[in-house]
Write a structure and sequence with these properties.
Chain lengths: 341, 217
């Protein structure tokens, strides 16, 4: 059974200027042990969706079923108890500024009414897990962003949750720190068997740690599936834009750029995935065919000595050369697709 | 200076402090919950309730717009009912509290609405109830601003207590009126004013120091 099930969820906001439909009949099913990504552009409704998962935002319509319990049907008290099993971390960390690190980690246990000595003991263990045992007496203002997020993660784990919600948890961090935090989340997912739901606008985050992903656009799920599959063959317009411009923040201007990139002539997008080979494939292809290509965008990472990621190539006008190149790439186990706007 | 005058001034300081400290204390007994209620029922509060907010807001506004001296006269029956007499330091505490409470409520409200909404949301996501949030997040995180507010409140109440002296309230204000106004003894009047200034300075400095000490940001 799915650990989180979202059924027909809608949320509208009434404001002076009219109503906004932030979420429009969302259906989702997240399995236990998943690292589930929810990706979309700014304003797509990601935060609203994740806040509906622990009912910080009350849905206008629909159900949120966590571990078989319909959260929308619980009493206030039952809901507060259930929230102990659904932890959350935030873009701006949201640590209590006037409490030191260890007291912050104790907060969920204090709320649950645990004994102080027990809470302190558990908090120390958690700080070790996030490698911050030497900062127990520091205050959040004395820590870096990455350290603050580690404290927030330790705090989130303090209530022994089954699910961890992350709302843009790495968006305020530099790339290196982002990677460290993502590694930590992955470790938590695997060692502690905690299901993780990650909200982000960065495809690179999804690629790095998620196994499944839903793309949300204008309050609706544009597509959903295995990360590998969606990254290789995005079907929706929103999916294509996010995948092709994946490493950057995708605002409207970036969206425009991505569309521009796809105009003109013959362009192909190739995806380096698990089974790609070790050789410098583009260089060899050019040598084999004897015609140059234009690398319009390259976004690859070295994963264990193999390139992973994507490239967009502008091919020569010669149709024969185009065909040969595509055949060559396919021969080398690369996913190739033509791209157009 | 004659010994009896020194004694009188010392007694004046004692009475002024007695009135101000107790009026501030009781003022907070009423004003703190009032301010908390204003904060949580307000527009972005955790227990939004426009009806309750409206009532608390209007009462605070009305009470704050009555000049202190007039309020003092208006509440004389209440003062007599509580204290048994309408003059003297203890009796003055009653109108001081009534006039300080709504001011303190506003002070508390403005401190608490500044507490980061993200921090509140974080503890809500952990299952914290209203009581926990008030105690540990609103009051805990708003601490520094609350202390600053308390310092301002105390200084204001000290000023009011001096004003109460004109109606037989005791304390330094009483001395200033009696000597400076009725007997044209400018010297004593100036001394009492200087003493009032020094008192305010001491408490302002103390408040600022405590506030700084307790700020971990
Ligand atoms: N409290 C709110 N009141 C009114 N509108 C809101 C509120 N929260 C979100 N919205 C609107 O809902 C839409 C989705 O917002 P959000 O979920 O924050 O998007 P994202 O996190 O994907 O950037 C936006 O159009 C936003 O303006
Ligand atoms: Mg958001």
């Amino acid at each position: 059974m799915a650990i989180v099930e979202v059924k027909n969820l809608s949320k509208t906001f009434d404001a002076a200027g009219g109503t906004t439909t932030a979420l429009n009949h969302i259906n989702l099913s997240i399995e236990e042990g998943d690292v589930f990504g929810i990706i979309g552009m700014s304003g797509a409704g990601k935060s609203t969706l994740v806040r509906c998962l622990n009912l910080l935002e009350v849905p206008t319509e629909g159900q949120v079923i966590v571990e078989g319990k319909d959260l929308t049907a619980l009493t206030n008290k039952e809901l507060r108890e259930e929230r102990g099993r659904i932890a959350m971390i935030f873009q701006s960390f949201n640590l209590l500024q006037q409490k030191n690190v260890i007291s912050n980690v104790c907060v969920p246990m204090m709320i649950q009414g645990k004994k102080k000595s027990e809470a302190k003991k558990r908090a120390k263990e958690l700080l070790e897990l996030v490698c911050l045992q030497d900062k127990a007496r520091s205050y959040p203002s004395q820590l870096s962003g990455g350290q603050c997020q580690r404290v927030a993660i330790a705090r989130a784990l303090a209530s022994d949750p089954k699910i961890l919600l992350c709302d843009e948890a790495t968006s305020a961090l530099d790339p290196q720190t982002t990677n460290q935090i993502l590694d930590l989340l992955k470790e938590i997912n695997q060692k502690l068997k905690i299901t993780i739901i990650i909200i982000t606008h960065q495809m690179s985050v999804v690629q790095k740690i998620c196994n499944r992903v839903a793309i949300i656009d204008h309050g609706e799920i544009a597509e959903m599936g295995e990360v590998e599959e969606i990254f290789t063959h995005p079907k929706s317009q929103a999916g294509r834009v996010l995948v092709i411009d994946g490493t950057q923040e995708v605002g409207t201007s970036d969206r425009q750029k991505a569309v521009e990139l796809l105009k003109e002539k013959k362009r192909i997008r190739i995806v380096f995935s698990k089974n790609s080979s070790y050789e410098p494939v583009i260089a060899n292809m050019v040598l084999a065919v004897g015609k140059p290509v234009n690398i319009l965008k390259a976004d690859t990472q070295d994963v264990g000595g193999v390139a992973r990621g994507q490239m967009i190539l502008g091919l020569p006008d010669d149709a024969d050369a185009q065909e040969k190149m595509i055949a060559y790439l396919k021969d080398h186990n690369l996913a190739v697709e033509e791209v157009q706007a | 200076m004659r010994e009896e005058i020194v004694t009188m001034l010392l007694q004046g300081i004692g009475e002024t402090l007695y009135m101000s400290v107790f009026a501030t204390l009781f003022g907070y007994v009423i004003g703190l919950p009032w301010g908390v209620a204003l904060c949580i029922t307000g527009k972005n509060g955790i227990k939004r309730n426009s009806g309750i907010y409206f009532v608390l807001d209007v009462i605070a506004n009305i009470m704050r717009s009555i000049p202190f001296l007039i309020l003092m006269i208006m509440v004389i029956p209440l003062t007599i009912a509580i204290v048994g007499q309408s003059y003297g330091s203890t009796a003055t505490i009653v109108p001081l509290v009534i006039s300080a409470a709504p001011m303190i409520a506003r002070m508390v409200e403005s401190s608490l609405v500044e507490v980061d909404a993200g921090e509140i949301e974080a503890v809500q996501s952990m299952g914290a109830g209203t009581g926990w949030i008030i105690l540990h997040v609103l009051l805990g995180e708003g601490r520094v601003s609350l202390i600053a507010g308390a310092t301002i409140s105390f200084a204001t109440i000290l000023g009011y207590s001096a004003m109460a002296g004109t109606l037989g309230g005791g304390g330094l204000g009483d001395i200033a009126i009696r000597y400076g106004y009725h007997r044209y003894d400018t010297q004593i009047m100036i001394i009492t004013v200087v003493l009032l200034v020094v008192l305010v300075q001491i408490f302002q400095g103390l408040g600022t120091w405590v506030g700084k000490k307790s700020d971990k940001r």
